Amino acid sequence: MFAENLQQVAESGRAFDTCIVGTGPAGITLALALAERGRPVLLLEAGGAHFDERSQHQYAGEVVGPLKFDLEVGRLRYFGGTSNHWGGFSQPLEAIDFETKVAGIETEWPIRRADLDPYLPAAESILELPAAVPDQPLGDSLRHTSMRYSPPVNFAIKFRPALERSPQVVVVLDACATNLVESGGRIVSLEVRSGDGPPRTVRASRYVLCAGGIENSRLLLWANARNGGRVVREPAALGRYWMEHPHFTLGEALLDERAPFEYDRWSIAWVSPNPSVLRERKMLNVGLRITRRNREASNQLIADLACVAPELGQWAMAKLRRRLYCGAMLRASWEQSPQPWNRVVLGAERDRYGIPRAELHWRLNDFDRQTAMKAAVMFGEEVARRGYGRVRLDPWVLGRGTFPADDEIKGNHHMGGTRMNRDPRRGVVDPDLKVHGLSNLYVGGSSVFPSGGAANPTLTIVQLALRHAEHLVASHATAD
Amino acid sequence: MRPLRAASATVRTARARPSDAAAPASRPRRALFPILAALLGWRSARPRRRPTFAIRDGWILRGDDR
């Protein structure tokens, strides 16, 4: 059923097996997977069926740090969540992404890639991904990779009919979770607001927060404050280890047209370091993106090259005239080191329901810069060694200057804040995504990622949701 | 100019500069020599050349780029 009135649901006293907060890829995947197994689900969406400025403004907040971005942009507060505008870029995390790559950098997950692999085919099917293409080696240190593109699947459009048909799912729009009520080590009810109406109470055996990479932390921080710290009893990691995938232009390249770079439908050639190289070079994962530039930009690049290597510049110009050379942008999206000081906290301003707005403390550090630099230098050396061309890096990449604030900066991949860890002092949820210390509160989505690899997160979010559904069904059977 | 550690020690440098064309694959005498040397246990008196790279004005250049 779809779009039942919150008041009716609250007053019906209907018992739900699971209440899911949020209708993005995590929430909808989980709801349908539970419904398929016969479990009654209450699925709450804070926004409406369509974009609404007033609703979206609930997401306003402040970024504290040198690189600013708007917290109202990059996520969407209506049915389908951020899937309403995602680009469809999909890659699974690699096996090494679940492990420690560099001593002292906490990238370790309490699960392994093998734990998510069984859910990969179903997740690929949900996202309608084409078949994977194996990586191709590029020298000893690098490889050509390929991005897989979802059409992209919009979860609101694709799954609304199934949710409407399902006798197990009740979807309520304009239902914003504003508090969790704890008693005796479990959540006993959820406080929900709709429009300007009074707070309502809904109940379920279990509650799963799938509200997004910032909102999950914000709601838990607020609920913890209102429940005297009994929701997240070891709050040391709550809101912390928040991550993005930094997105920056690292430099430019002159590339031989005959070099074996395959440009995909977005005119991007993808290159990454080999996993074995990451530990050796003490760096995290990186996706280099090579995109072609026009002839004018290529001319300028060759002129610049001629200033430092005149013979090489002349030779490159001759090749450009024969259309054998082309300029390219060297961009990268890479893994940010998870750090406790990057965190979501409750700000001074409040939203329409009196909940403190998110204040996001976020900055990149020199280790993050070095990760990008090492990958770019590897690429530049390999290109020069093989006679494919030459690469020029921007000064900040080489440590002269700071991250440019006028670049793309981030990929709208909000990860961490409620990270997964076996130790309650170092994580918020356990490997089953259950909040430590409570028997029936769970978190889904990328906020549980302990680290983000260099892969776009949606595919992993869907894999995790499918695994989560299986766990919830199994644990419910045990409880029965 | 800032020298960089080469990523690999097994890289051939092209003879003709500034040509970036890959060296011809078949040079029987040159290709046979290291195989014979390995089989017979000969050792070259000259240490193997490691490729060098340098960064000039942001450009990652080979040591022999002019």
Overview of the molecule:
The complex is a heterodimer of chains A (480) and B (66). With 480 residues, chain A is of the alpha+beta class. Chain A contains twelve helices and 21 strands. In chain A, strands 5, 6, 13, 14, 15, 16, 19 and 20 form an eight-stranded antiparallel beta sheet that branches. In chain A, strands 8-2-1-12-21 form a five-stranded parallel beta sheet, with helices on one face. In chain A, strands 3-18-17 form a three-stranded mixed beta sheet, covered by helices on one side. The model of chain A has no long low-confidence stretch (mean pLDDT 95). Chain B is α+β, with helices and mostly antiparallel strands and 66 residues long. Helix content of chain B is 20%, strand content 17%. In chain B, strand 2 (53-56) and strand 3 form a beta hairpin. The longest helix of chain B is centred in the middle third of the chain and has 13 residues, at 28-40. Residues 5-26 of chain B have low confidence and may be disordered. The interface between A and B is medium-sized, with 34 and 25 residues.
Helix-strand topology string of chain B: EHEE
Number of strands of chain B: 3
Helix content of chain A: 25-40%
Portion in beta strands of chain B: 15-25%
Q: Overall 3D geometry of chain A?
A: elongated
Pair with the most extensive interface? Answer: A-B, 34 and 25 residues
Strand content of chain A: 15-25%
- Helix/strand structural class of chain A: alpha+beta
Distance between the termini of chain A: 26 Å
Q: What is the rounded Rg of chain B? A: 15 Å
Strand order of the largest sheet of chain B: 1-2-3
Main sheet specs of chain A: 8 strands, antiparallel
**Mean of pLDDT of chain B:** 61
Question: Rg of chain A to the nearest angstrom?
Answer: 24 Å
Helix share, percent of chain B: 10-25%
The end-to-end span of chain B amounts to: 13 Å
User: What is the number of E strands of chain A?
Assistant: 21
Q: Any chance you could write out the topology, listing elements then pairs?
A:
The complex is a heterodimer of chains A (480) and B (66).
Chain A (H helix, E strand, L loop, with lengths): L5 H7 L3 E6 L3 H12 L4 E4 L8 H4 L4 E4 L24 E2 L22 H4 L3 H8 L8 E3 L3 E4 L2 E2 L5 H11 L3 E4 L3 E8 L2 E8 L6 E3 L1 E6 L5 H12 L19 E11 L11 E6 L1 H7 L4 E7 L2 H14 L1 H12 L3 E10 L8 E8 L5 E6 L4 H20 L3 E5 L15 E2 L30 E3 L14 H22 L1
Parallel strand pairs in A: 1-2, 1-12, 2-8, 3-18, 12-21
Antiparallel strand pairs in A: 4-7, 5-6, 6-14, 9-10, 10-11, 13-16, 13-19, 13-20, 14-15, 15-16, 17-18
Chain B lengths: L1 E3 L23 H13 L12 E4 L2 E4 L4
Antiparallel strand pairs in B: 1-2, 2-3
